[in-house]
Amino acid sequence: MKTGCEKRLDKSFRDAPVLPLYPHSKLVLFSDCHRGVGNSNDNFLKNQHLYFAALRHYYDSNFIYIELGDGDELWENRSLAAIREIHSNVFWLLSLFAQENRLHMLYGNHDHALEGCRDFPHHAGLILKICGFPEYDAKTRRRIPHCLELYLTHGHQADLLNSTLWKFARFLVRYIWKPMEQIGFLDPTSAAKNYRHRQKSEQRLSHWAIRNNCYLITGHTHRPMLGSPETRYFNTGSCVHPRCITCIEIENGAISLVKWFEDTTPERILFVSRAVLAGPLPLHEL
User: Fold this and answer.
1) Which of 23, 211, 33 shows the shortest CA–CA distance to 105?
2) Is the backbone of residue 161 left (phi > 0), alpha (psi -120 to 50) or beta?
């Protein structure tokens, strides 16, 4: 019998859009930006310059942008309009992606209210279907085993409180944990801030991927991870890490875990730098 987590994940992909993934495709996957209204609770604020620099790079380099949920912090804040006004430069650039059909948005627990949003349609899941990759190794002529699909979702389906009971969890965050966060308390309902909760969520997500013989890419736990044929689970990380943001790139038929951070030249000039944390892992080796 399937668990509640497995049923929720199944539902997320039941009517999910399918995006073809070719060897020449260029995609970048972000999650958990938690864009706020510019106050002391806006965790995105400290990394907004890193994110905008990365976003501009991916736009100029013709990447498809995919956001895996919790892009906007709508548990602590009621107004999406206020978020868009504060971070108008980000939404301007996202609108350029959208105009060129290079934007795909998923919703998570903190922005579940955006389901069916007209401006940037948000879905529960997205499936990347691998197409056009070679079936045989050019040297050995042996068949190359590889996964046919990559499943993308936020990952909050791993626990009941953040999925089915998300409105109750939003109430707790908005009226209890938000004010307590300002005096130093951590939200115990958050998979990103509770180690045991995070570990259980990741185990459930990995188990679902193995059971369904696919590869699963999520956010939610904020812990960046490049998966393997054993775990079948990847995580983009978040844009609210101290001093850096992380994402997953798919380019030249391979997948990489990347971070963007502030660095200095020998002349002590600040600049935004990019570094590969793990990979690139060829997709045909999955």
Assistant:
1) 33
2) alpha
> CB-based burial of residue 74 (10 Å sphere; 0-12 exposed, 13-18 middle, 19+ buried)?
buried
Buried b (16+ CB within 10 A) or exposed e, 180-197: ebeeeeebebbbbbbeeb
pLDDT tens-digit series, residues 116-173? 776 778 899 999 998 877 766 666 666 665 667 899 999 998 888 787 876 877 777 7
In degrees, to the nearest 5, what angle opens at C-alpha 276 toward C-alphas 272 and 277? 115
How many distinct structural domains can be found in the chain? 1
Cα torsion through 223, 226, 232, 235, rounded to 10: 30
Q: How far apart are the first and last CA of the chain?
A: 28
Q: Look up the domain containing 232 and give its range.
A: 4-285
| pTM, full prediction | 0.89
- Report residue 10 as tokens: 């199944």
